[in-house]
Amino acid sequence: ARNLVGSRVLLVATYRSDEMRRSHPLRPVLAELGRLAHVERVELQPLTDQEVAELLTAIHGRPVPPEIVSQVADRSEGNPFFAEELFAACDDERVPLTLRDILSARIDGLPDAAKEVLRIAAAAGRRVDHRLLEVVATLGLDELDAGLRAAIDGQALVPDGDGFRFRHALLQEAVHEQLLPGERSRLHRAFADALLEEPALAAGGADSVDSELAHHALAAHDVDLAFRSLVRAGRRAHALFAFSEAQTH
Question: Which of 47, 69, 160, 161 has the smallest C-beta neighbourhood within 10 Å, fewest atoms?
């Protein structure tokens, strides 16, 4: 690449930045290429909601109902391949089998400690506070840190303020679906108990704890706690003029 100064040669290379571990051998190569004046690096951004609508219309051959476009756009987060697969299985709320296999393969290569951390984090949702993870996880602090570090290095989790979030929402869904029924109930029960003990550990702070409590209580089959939490969350949303959210609660 350094010697291609006057030659009429164009090289185009692509790679998936969200699948590159910190130790990936391509990283130092990219760093060297980035220092060359005649190398241009183009970062592709996720599709916008409008672009997702255009993609689905092109696949379907005619306009797609707005509610389906919104659902696919939210879950795919602008990834065109994910959007196409979700659209093909839009009648199923679960992660399509094709995507589940791809996402599971990414997880399978991680160390056991990282897999355990991801299973716990998946029950929390897309994002989890580090302190909440420490409370719920039955791992030692050293093992928890090692698992988190491996999950971040494997591009499954990314640091987000005082916590962590899954790199993609579908990855969280896929890991959560792999939990055994009893395991899922126990984890959600543990999260509910932790939030009852310290509401400030909720992802949105103490003010949003009721909606998170309701989610965990329902998954843990505690309908009494879920009912009380949904009523409180609905009243708070109504007070904030978030009528659609209030109705949902």
Answer: 161
